[in-house]
Amino acid sequence: MSGLPVASIKELSEKHPKPSDIKFTYGTAGFRTLASVLDSVLFRVGILAGLRSKKLDGKTIGVMVTASHNPEQDNGVKLVDPRGEMLESSWESHATTLSNASSTDEFISALEAFVRDAKIDLSKPARVVYAMDTRPSGPALVSALEDGLRAIGADGRNAGVTTTPILHYLVRAINTKGTAEAYGDDSEDGYYTKLTNAFKKLVSAKPTPSPLLIDCANGVGANAAKKLAEYLGDTFSLVLENTSITAPGALNNACGADFVKTTQKLPSSLSNIIKPGQRGCSLDGDADRLMYFHLDDRGQFRMLDGDKIAALVAAFIVELVKAAGLDESIKVGVVQTAYANGASTKYLAERLPVKCVSTGVKHLHHAAEHYDVGVYFEANGHGTVLFSPDTLAKLADYQPSTPAQSTAVEHLVNLTQLINQTVGDALSDMLLVEVVLAHKAYGGLEWDSLYVDLPNRLVKVVVADRHIFKTVDAERRLTSPVGLQDKIDSLVGKYEGGRSFVRPSGTEDVVRVYAEAVVKSQADELAFRVAGLVYDETGGDPATRPKEFL
Ligand SMILES: CC(=O)N[C@H]1[C@@H](OP(=O)(O)O)O[C@H](CO)[C@@H](O)[C@@H]1O
Ligand SMILES: [Mg+2]
Fold first, then answer.
1. Please, which residues have CB less than 5 A from ligand 2, an ion?
2. ipTM reported for the complex, 2 dp
3. Catalytic residues
């Protein structure tokens, strides 16, 4: 075994010193914080990505530089494993440890220990493909990443400015090239061609959909949606808004999927553009989340979130599987989190198996892999559909006995091409939604009426130490602080259709309180009473108690 290239790491590491007063964490969304403090993290991630590739026998690893829906001054970085999935969780803590070594010497010792413990064969090749979103801090951070790749001797491929899901696609396409599982050509052209060819086949016998308004969050989704529109040609026209990717401060500002979900409002930049009866959607800053909305006939804004997308898509796939005559051998299931609207869970559970897992895409993704076809969406609009290898083989080998069965199987096969199965993908999900709407001849109104959302409220509570909050049952119940869950239960019992749960955030230094009830004012009241309880029970200072807490 050859050793670490210590001299080269040392020399380059000196150019990327760690800020002394900061503790970094590789969390649910990778490293994410103010861009101005991330230089050393990117350098070290470059080395880590190289080591991950060596550990996996030279398979290509992805690195995405983005802070998604966060404000423009933030940035972040996450690693992508060879099949396009999130980094294996055991490596998250190694990433955290390496990022916090205080000096170059300490960093090198930590690397040496890691290489030994993880039994990494340094003589293996290392390959990494990387990309960034449109943030102004991106280029400098990418150059720190490239120093890391150089230090460990990894081959880097720069995929430029692109979306998170395209980077995930590229990783899988590169690693499956020339195999029976080839995912597509390993280029952006390959991605757009794959998606749009499948889309065109799926809607070929349907009327052309009315043009769709897309809020691009002033981010990288604007570039991607523009290219997608070119590949779609006349089949489907996209009206792109919030495309100012170079305007200072515009990214995610009062627009984008997260804004729509958290404020339950239309971005004001669209208010003069969207017409009653029209549908539109918002992407987030790296185009992996999607929120739909429509204005009803009276011009009222109606949000169609990840739960509504899951309901629409899952019911459609179940219908197709049945129409194909495959319902005995292909089982469709849905994965949600506790934040899924109770009405969506009820709607889905009446039709197919539904599983609830902890917050965070990796939990949903892994649970969805256990179904033949697993549909997963977070309420915030991040999700996709996974077809198991067995299911893909069944679809490929199936001999339909009627023309109707044959059409249904063809549709299913085209869906496997349309859907980005590596990760949630706003553009792929958008085409998927449009396919279902076209097949069902639904507008926003019909889709929205699948079920009626229960009124709900999400509240943040700032506490002294959120780590004392421990949960069980897919985060729906607290075991610590002891006794708090009983108090929440007795509050919930007072509200018709009441549901509430409390969990520590994995991405912000807060505790989140979610509440639902049959009436909006009651959902708000329940949320603020539970928030008040959490605050008081964990020693919150009465002087700074938020006044809306009850
Ligand atoms: C209530 C909520 O929307 N939580 C979000 C948020 O996680 P928290 O752990 O709740 O901070 O960020 C995650 C990463 O983007 C996302 O997966 C999740 O859905
Ligand atoms: Mg995102």
1. 68, 284, 286, 288-289
2. 0.98
3. 68
